[in-house]
């Protein structure tokens, strides 16, 4: 199973990640878009690489790129007690 990682930077320069010798040899796919980079890694030694990426580039990792459309209490609905 492959793993995906999404990074965000305001300057849109990801050369250090892509040339990192520990990560570079495991990259299978890379996709760039507005200030983001998504890489897909082979699953070889995935837990070690995952830990490495989290420690070294954790501040730039992103999850949940879509808006959360969960209902909001008091805005989308009102809670009522059983006695009302």
Separation, N- and C-terminal Cα atoms: 52 Å
Strand content: 25-35%
The top-level CATH class is Alpha Beta
* Spans where pLDDT lies below 50 across 5 or more residues: none
Main sheet overview: 4 strands, antiparallel
Which structural class do you get from the secondary structure elements?
Answer: alpha+beta
Description:
This protein has a four-stranded antiparallel beta sheet with strand order 2-3-1-4, covered by helices on one side. 8% of the residues are buried. It is elongated and about 65 Å long. The chain has a single domain (3-62), classed as Alpha-Beta Plaits. The protein contains three helices and four strands, in the order βααββαβ. With 84 residues, the protein is of the alpha+beta class.
Label this structure with key terms.
84 residues, alpha+beta, Alpha-Beta Plaits, four-stranded antiparallel beta sheet, 3 helices
């Amino acid at each position: 199973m492959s793993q995906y990682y999404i990074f965000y930077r305001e300057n849109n320069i990801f050369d250090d990640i892509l040339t990192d010798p520990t990560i570079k040899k495991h990259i299978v796919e890379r996709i760039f878009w507005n200030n983001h980079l998504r890489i897909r890694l082979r699953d070889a030694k995935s837990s070690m690489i995952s830990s490495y990426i989290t420690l070294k580039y954790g501040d730039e990792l992103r999850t949940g790129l879509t808006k959360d459309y969960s209902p909001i209490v008091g805005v989308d609905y009102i809670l009522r007690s059983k006695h009302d």
